[in-house]
Specification:
Oligomer: single chain
Order of helices and strands: EHEEEEEEEEHHEHHHHHHHHHHH
Structural class: alpha+beta
Shape: elongated
Strand content: 5-15%
Radius of gyration: 24 Å
Strand order of the largest sheet: 1-3-8-5-6
Number of helices: 14
Length: 298
């Protein structure tokens, strides 16, 4: 079994790749300077953005793997582990990585909303595939950050570096929006699969035995990470995945309410609610009426 290489600090990662450490908390790493190596799991103790220039094998992330194509952008958050699967063959890394420690962004505007960049929680098979123009924008952003790292530190340094990281991440949001639209084949029928999944769930005894279907459960059943799944639902419907599930619940509840042999509590338990009052609260929030009021009105 391959031993995981752990990198807690930016300096450790720079040393591993034969790069000089210009700042202890942020670096633009030239991977072509690294020695040839075989693939192995790597633990990242910091935010990492890779742009790959050549094929080196598959990247394995958890149980998933995908073809690490030239011009692919991959994101890792602190605490994540990924592995290049080179089948034991040495390869020469090539490309660049932007790495920055969370301590660098604490107390800044970026630090306050870094969680908004949900692609740091995507699986590797949900990576960003860049066009040539997009790749140029990313490399120019890397170059600007590296330029600032090479200058003498002054009162503007940190602000400019963080501003450029934030600009880079905002471009990535735009490019992901484009990918959601253009990758029709990958996303084709996605909503239909989601609908079928929910329909199948409520036709079994899973609501009574497991409870309400969570967003994470739905994502897993569709072989997507929760973040990517949520973003895809939002892009396709304008609603969050949670809102989509809740609307399905309300639709089913309205049908069940017409069955006068069932109490409101019976319906709540059938749908997977642990407490009937939670069902009543959600129903009134979504319809403006309590379940009993809806039953009487209809």
């Amino acid at each position: 079994m391959d031993i995981t290489r752990r990198f807690e600090t930016v300096s450790e990662y720079n040393a591993f790749n034969n790069n000089e450490t210009l700042h202890p908390l942020v670096s633009v790493v030239d991977l072509s300077k690294a020695d040839p190596r075989a693939g192995a799991p790597i633990y990242f103790g910091f935010y990492t953005i890779f742009i790959k220039d050549v094929m080196c094998g598959d990247i394995r992330y958890g149980r998933h793997k995908y073809d690490y194509q030239e011009g692919t952008l991959v994101f890792f958050a602190p605490g994540q582990v990924a592995a290049v699967d080179s089948n034991g063959v040495l390869y020469q890394p090539k490309g660049h990585a932007l790495v920055f420690h969370e301590d660098f962004i604490h107390g800044t505007s970026l630090g306050k909303h870094i969680q908004d960049y949900t692609f740091f929680g995507y699986q590797a098979n949900e990576a960003l595939h860049l066009s040539e123009r997009e790749r140029k924008v990313i490399l120019e952003s890397f170059a600007k950050i590296k330029y600032e790292l090479e200058q003498s530190v002054d009162k503007h340094s940190k602000k400019l570096i963080i501003s450029n990281i934030e600009l880079l991440l905002n471009y990535c949001v735009r490019f992901y929006d484009r990918q959601f639209i253009t990758r029709d084949n990958a996303n084709k029928g996605f909503l239909e699969k989601f609908e079928a999944l929910l329909n199948g769930y409520f036709q079994t005894d899973k609501p009574q035995t497991i409870g309400l279907p969570s967003v994470a459960w739905c994502a897993g059943e569709l072989n997507l990470s929760p973040n990517y799944f949520g973003d895809l639902v939002k892009k396709e419907t304008g609603k969050s995945a949670q809102e989509f599930v809740q609307e399905k619940l309300i639709h089913l509840a309205k049908e069940k309410i017409f069955d006068l042999d069932k109490s409101i509590s019976d319906i709540a338990y059938e749908l997977g609610f642990k407490y009937p009052q939670h069902f009543t609260r959600l129903f009134k929030q979504k319809t403006g009426l309590s379940p009993n009021e809806y039953r009487l009105a209809n």
